[in-house]
Amino acid sequence: MLKLINKIASQTSYSITVFDNNSKTELFTEQIDATMHRGGAKAHSGYTIFNMLEQIKKKEYKNWQKKYAGKK
Length: 72
Description:
The protein has one domain (2-68). Helix content is 39%, strand content 36%. It contains 1 helix and 3 strands. The protein has one helix at residues 41-68; strands spanning 2-6, 11-20, 25-35. Strands 1-2-3 form a 3-stranded antiparallel β-sheet. The two termini are 23 Å apart.
């Protein structure tokens, strides 16, 4: 879910919620800040979401594994 767009700082904040499909329960919610792309609406949205997913893949996922390991 998009939370905040800061055009001056070129930052966008998203709220990421991870849930368990089998038990239908929320596991955790974290805020991710992503860099915005200057350009049209499609380029802005696409680049920002791509940037956020890359950040999760490279850094956040490992942090979440350590932080939430074994918690249910």
